[in-house]
Amino acid sequence: MPLSSLRKTTSPVSQGPPLLTAEVPRRPPLHGVPSTLLIPLAARAAGDAYFPHLACDDAVAARQLRSLNVDVSAYLADRLTVLNILWRTRRIREAGQAFFAQHPQAWGINLGCGLSDYFQWLDNGRNTWIDADLPEVMALRSGLNPPCSPRLRRATLDITHPQWWQALHLPQHALDQPLFVVCEGVLMYLQPSQAQQVLAQFATHAPARSRMLIDTLHQCAVGHAHWHSSVGRTGAEFHWGIRHPNELCASHPRLRLRQLHSVSECYGWFGRGVDALWNPWIGAPLYGLAELVV
Ligand SMILES: C[S@@+](CC[C@H](N)C(=O)[O-])C[C@H]1O[C@@H](n2cnc3c(N)ncnc32)[C@H](O)[C@@H]1O
Fold first, then answer.
1. What are the E-state strand segments in 149-277?
2. Which of 1, 6, 8, 37, when mutated, tests ligand 1's pocket best, judged by the most ligand atoms within 8 Å of its CB?
3. I need a surface site. Which of 62, 164, 215, 241 has the fewest CB within 10 A?
């Protein structure tokens, strides 16, 4: 696929189409992996009630869900997934707040953003944020999100394209300081070579001290999405998982693993016990959040 077919470029949100109202479909026109965006959207919009200690207070998700008017009760009934998403949201948000405290004018990028909105929490008045996803998702997003800030941009791209980084069209001043990159709930749906290519592109192009946060599945989950109460409903499949944390840095010599958090930390003593028993055998968390740095 030529780079020109990546449809577009980044643009300030204020240039997007107006907010959809009555014409919003009851079912978003999404299938397969893009349709999985409803799982984290439901968790952030309504999960706080189940897990107040991890509440994310996501007013944007709640509004988007009301506008979409879709039935997400089956996703909310999958309480473990709701918990896992609230946990990763909190971790990413805290990492972003710490990063922008150090680099207040830096740029953040959310690859495979779905309908998530981290800028509601990370906007410090000086930083810039790019939300990027496939064309059908960005079209849905444009319809749902009203204009709000010239420092909030959008990019329509496919991260399996070998030149997706160029499609971000980052200006030089964005590259004069470290970047904060998020890619959550995305890489496990890619082929292993594609996931490694995404990490390698980040490592090749990002300025020193840039951060990338990704969530990881263990290899044992690959090919078994049908067992997952929420993902199993969407027809999407898990293709990429890890057996050892070292695999996260294997695609490029600049990549370093700063931390790998296990989701077990939100399951208290029970989770820590299971981790202690399993880790020597399986080598990596069943589900984790990795902080990579170049
Ligand atoms: C489970 S959703 C996660 C959405 C968002 N990151 C969140 O946590 O709310 C997976 C997202 O990955 C996006 N995605 C999948 N393959 C992609 C690709 N090749 N390029 C860009 N985005 C992709 C989908 O369109 C979808 O929005």
1. 152-156, 179-183, 211-217, 256-262
2. 37
3. 62
Residue 112 Cα, ligand 1 centroid: separation in angstroms?
Answer: 4
Residue 28 binned pLDDT confidence (cut-offs 50, 70, 90): low
What average pLDDT does range 29-38 have in this prediction?
84
Confidence of residue 26 (pLDDT cuts 50, 70, 90): low
Q: Which atom of ligand 1 is nearest to the CA of 37?
A: 2
Q: Which homologous superfamily does the CATH classification assign to the domain defined by 89-293?
A: Vaccinia Virus protein VP39 (3.40.50.150)
What CA–CA distance (Å, rounded) separates 110 from 60? 16
Residue 280's pLDDT is 75
Strand order in the sheet with 107-111: 10-12, 152-156, 128-133, 107-111, 179-183, 211-217, 287-293, 256-262
Residues in the ligand 1 pocket, defined by CB under 6 Å: 33-34, 36-37, 39-40, 112-114, 116, 133-134, 137, 158-160, 184-186, 189
Q: pLDDT tens digit string along 117-170?
A: 999 999 999 999 999 999 999 999 998 987 678 899 999 999 999 999 999 999
Distance 33 CA to ligand 1 centre (A): 7
Percent of the chain predicted with pLDDT > 90: 77
Give CA separation, 76 vs 79, 117, 276, in Å: 6, 19, 29
Probe target for ligand 1 pocket from 68, 84, 134, 136, with the most ligand atoms within 8 Å of CB: 134
Alpha-carbon separation of residue 33 from 37, 105, 148 (angstroms)? 8, 33, 28
Output the CA 280–ligand 1 centroid distance in Å.
Answer: 31
